[in-house]
Amino acid sequence: MEEKLKIFFCEDDENLGMLLREYLQAKGYVTDLFSDGEAGYKGFTKGKYDLCVLDVMMPKKTGYEVCKELRKEFTPVDLPILIVTAKNQSLDIQAGFDSGANDYLTKPFRTGELLARIRASIRQNQEPSDKPLLSFDTLEIDLVSHIAKK
To answer: Are strands 133-136 and 103-106 parallel, antiparallel or unpaired?
Structure first.
């Protein structure tokens, strides 16, 4: 049986957060919801997640701050982070990517687009099952990761 993907979700708007959590769960994702950045980060340290969805404007700790803290421990490949926020100015979007986010989605959005971005983020971080390799004698080069092994 395939294990369900687990999403860490920080959103301070209680109604939106619960609605999106239920929607994601209905689509087959295990989703843990936290209502502020500080509680969210503490909760994150107690679980193992496949993806993070962060609002920006939250009490106690912003989504940018949480993202920066997570990036100290996890690379973008190890943990995709999607920022979902009403902040839609160019400088806000740049700040999101500069904080370490893989993707940025502005509110209002369609739930189908959120799902597509979640799938794309997860897909980008999966290893190809049949990696293209070059081999010569005892040398092997992975053409995806560009790692050579002897």
So the answer is: unpaired
pLDDT of 40-88, one tens digit each? 888 888 888 999 999 999 999 999 999 999 999 888 888 999 999 999 9
Sign of the torsion angle spanned by Cα atoms 57, 120, 51, 28? positive
pLDDT of residue 19: 94
pLDDT tens-place string over residues 117-142: 999 988 876 655 456 677 778 888 87
Q: What's the pTM value of the predicted model, to 2 decimals?
A: 0.79
Q: Which residues on adjacent β-strands are paired with residue 142?
A: 133, 147
User: In terms of C-beta distances under 8 Å and separation of at least 24 residues, what long-range contacts does 63-68 make, across chains too?
Assistant: 63/10, 63/37, 63/96, 63/99, 64/95, 64/96, 64/99, 65/37, 65/99, 66/10, 66/37, 66/40, 66/41, 67/96, 67/99, 67/100, 67/101, 68/99, 68/100
